[in-house]
Amino acid sequence: MGIIVAKFGGTSIGDGKRIKKAARAVVKEYMQGKKVVVVVSAINKTTDDILEIVNRSIGEAITEKQMADIVSMGEITSVRVFSSTIESLGVKSEYIDPHMEIWPVITDSNYLNAKIDFAETEIKSREILKLLDQGVIPVLCGFLGKDREGNITTLGRGGSDITAFLLGHCLQAEEVIIVTDVGGVMSTDPNKLQTAKKLDKISVEEMRDLATHGAQVLHPHALRYKDPKINAKIIGFEHGDLSAPGTEIMGPSKDKMLRSTTLNNEPISVIAVVGEEMLTKVGILAELTKTLQDNNINIYGISTGQNSITLFIDRSEADKAHEILHEVVINSPDMSSLSLGREIAMISVNSQDFIDTPGIITKITAPLRKNKINIVEISSSQTSVVIFVDWNDGKRAYEMVRRVLE
């Protein structure tokens, strides 16, 4: 019998009616022969209410240890209500919280943003397997952990999603199901565009990038625990059915690690187009990129300045790009000239941890500065940093950056 880990967000168990609906969905899977582990968040707005009380009563005098202990009450209440609801439907269930000996999620003592002790958590998760073998549906607190001294910790943002994927991995589950207030992952925010459509599938890499840029469906931190062998999907609570279609999360791909550094194999050439106050002129960038597209020339990167646009092109196509872009420049009243620059190397650094790592660009570039390696250009997003250096410095720079990431 396969194991399902089902995580219910705060909105999906926002009141008694929704809790019963969720419990019935769990029991339905159980009656069909599945072993189900439930992870629940705090009931909708419970944590916000607790934080407001803490702020008015204690304020800044509260310690991190006290805060973790107090905010845990939301999840500690949820598991008791949810487990009792399952039992009211005639199925054995047990709630599990960090105060209990069998609690599986072990962390360090960073109370409000704890780091998971993966090895210890895998060992402790065996207790959950024993309950499943006894025909019990375990209901666990999302978001919470416990340090080696028995103190309650919290996993930070996206904590309940982390709990679900972590347990899915440790229990070698068949599937992890994230139940939310939306029917899956949408092509864009449906509150902003009514034409938004639900995606049937999305890769881990796409989901991570979408989440880091503001999508609220799933926290990117949780995806580091997504096992490629385990199915995963996001569904809406309104179905009341864990087998309902939603958005399937694919991967991660074995060749796309969560943390990586790459160096392009061939040199890249720089083409700089200049013109007075180019950034204030509409359509210039589109004209340049459309010209290259029409000639099947790929662009590795674009950098813009007040009076210039820099394009990074494969060296083998640089002369052709230079020639065709020259025709665009001399026929444009807004562009004055262009130049074909030196050969450079492109180093790409990717990690989902960047979004929560202050000073990451400084850490990456510091060894280059110390070794007098000039950076021709640098660009970044929330999960990646791309550095361009002289081709002759490429391999040295790559090794230095890779050591920083390791």
UniProtKB/TrEMBL annotation:
<dbReference type="InterPro" id="IPR027795">
    <property type="entry name" value="CASTOR_ACT_dom"/>
</dbReference>
<dbReference type="Pfam" id="PF00696">
    <property type="entry name" value="AA_kinase"/>
</dbReference>
<comment type="pathway">
    <text>Amino-acid biosynthesis; L-methionine biosynthesis via de novo pathway; L-homoserine from L-aspartate: step 1/3.</text>
</comment>
<dbReference type="InterPro" id="IPR005260">
    <property type="entry name" value="Asp_kin_monofn"/>
</dbReference>
<dbReference type="InterPro" id="IPR045865">
    <property type="entry name" value="ACT-like_dom_sf"/>
</dbReference>
<dbReference type="Pfam" id="PF22468">
    <property type="entry name" value="ACT_9"/>
</dbReference>
<comment type="similarity">
    <text>Belongs to the aspartokinase family.</text>
</comment>
<dbReference type="GO" id="GO:0005829">
    <property type="term" value="C:cytosol"/>
</dbReference>
<keyword id="KW-0547">Nucleotide-binding</keyword>
<feature type="domain" description="ACT">
    <location>
        <begin position="273"/>
        <end position="345"/>
    </location>
</feature>
<dbReference type="InterPro" id="IPR001341">
    <property type="entry name" value="Asp_kinase"/>
</dbReference>
<dbReference type="InterPro" id="IPR018042">
    <property type="entry name" value="Aspartate_kinase_CS"/>
</dbReference>
<dbReference type="GO" id="GO:0009089">
    <property type="term" value="P:lysine biosynthetic process via diaminopimelate"/>
</dbReference>
<dbReference type="InterPro" id="IPR002912">
    <property type="entry name" value="ACT_dom"/>
</dbReference>
<dbReference type="GO" id="GO:0009088">
    <property type="term" value="P:threonine biosynthetic process"/>
</dbReference>
<comment type="pathway">
    <text>Amino-acid biosynthesis; L-lysine biosynthesis via DAP pathway; (S)-tetrahydrodipicolinate from L-aspartate: step 1/4.</text>
</comment>
<dbReference type="GO" id="GO:0005524">
    <property type="term" value="F:ATP binding"/>
</dbReference>
<dbReference type="InterPro" id="IPR036393">
    <property type="entry name" value="AceGlu_kinase-like_sf"/>
</dbReference>
<feature type="domain" description="ACT">
    <location>
        <begin position="349"/>
        <end position="406"/>
    </location>
</feature>
<dbReference type="InterPro" id="IPR001048">
    <property type="entry name" value="Asp/Glu/Uridylate_kinase"/>
</dbReference>
<dbReference type="Pfam" id="PF13840">
    <property type="entry name" value="ACT_7"/>
</dbReference>
<dbReference type="GO" id="GO:0004072">
    <property type="term" value="F:aspartate kinase activity"/>
</dbReference>
<dbReference type="InterPro" id="IPR054352">
    <property type="entry name" value="ACT_Aspartokinase"/>
</dbReference>
<keyword id="KW-0418">Kinase</keyword>
<keyword id="KW-0808">Transferase</keyword>
<protein>
    <recommendedName>
        <fullName>Aspartokinase</fullName>
        <ecNumber>2.7.2.4</ecNumber>
    </recommendedName>
</protein>
<keyword id="KW-0067">ATP-binding</keyword>
<dbReference type="GO" id="GO:0009090">
    <property type="term" value="P:homoserine biosynthetic process"/>
</dbReference>
<keyword id="KW-0028">Amino-acid biosynthesis</keyword>
